Amino acid sequence: xxxxxxxxxxxxxxxxxxxxxxxxxxxxxxxxxxxxxxxxxxxxxxxxxxxxxxxxxxxxxxxxxxxxxxxxxxxxxxxxxxxxxxxxxxxxxxxxxxxxxxxxxxxxxxxxxxxxxxxxxxxxxxxxxxxxxxxxxxxxxxxxxxxxxxxxxxxxxxxxxxxxxxxxxxxxxxxxxxxxxxxxxxxxxxxxxxxxxxxxxxxxxxxxxxxxxxxxxxxxxxxxxxxxxxxxxxxxxxxxxxxxxxxxxxxxxxxxxxxxxxxxxxxxxxxxxxxxxxxxxxxxxxxxxxxxxxxxxxxxxxxxxxxxxxxxxxxxxxxxxxxxxxxxxxxxxx
Length: 334
Prior knowledge:
By secondary structure, the protein is mostly helical. The protein has 2 domains: 31-167; 211-333, no CATH class. 78% of the residues lie in helices and 0% in strands. The chain has 10 helices and no strands. It has helices spanning 6-27, 36-84, 90-131, 137-187, 211-228, 242-251, 255-271, 276-292, 297-316, 319-333. Helix 2 (36-84) packs parallel to helix 4, helix 8 (276-292) packs parallel to helix 10 and helix 9 runs antiparallel to helix 10 (319-333).
């Protein structure tokens, strides 16, 4: 066998190296060197992988949201338990407070995980938006159609889950209202009725009142109602008529009668306390009003959320906060 000289061997190795480089150049195309159909295939494959990741992230987020809903329901159940405790049951209150604290910490943890998942979803969507940059108009449209169909399927699935969740929340709310109404009927069997009698000629003998005597007292009464969050519907029977009596008497220039009614109104408003019995009676009235007047859509969701918050504040003894939420429900109903 003939031995090659060192020079011949170097030339042969050089030839092999050239062919190897040329083979790599032709076999490993860059994305910009691909044909249009090849580009579409590459993009579609990448898009499918991103879609699988998206489904996984959405599934995990849905599971987290359902878990958070369960935690909220447990907290609502604790509120109902709190409302059933006696005022001097310190041990029971302490135990429920400990349970609620644990649930609050768990809900915060779940909320943080959901925020992280939303961030991952946002990053994934950004990657998807960059995919079709090198496609022609027709191919980009085909890709958009595929994405739209996939997105619609995901929305339909998510909508079905949400409808089931809303139905469950409405059932829980109805059960809570029923339990609360039963408790109110047991603890507050009756409502004290305040009867205000209006004499035909009130006022001090020989005293002639004018508009200037009525208006300051009436303004003070209305300001006291606003500062306490007392609505006309919250006034005791008899007292609730006084506002109309004052206005009608002033319009007819019967200032003595108007002055007497204004004094009665101011005195009654100052005696009202925003306490457990006041809020309990108000929740009962608004619960009945919400059943009579069916709200729809966003108003219904807002009213339900406010009602849940009001009952939670009531159970915690935060009566002023509960009163503000109930007043917001009243505004939605009227």
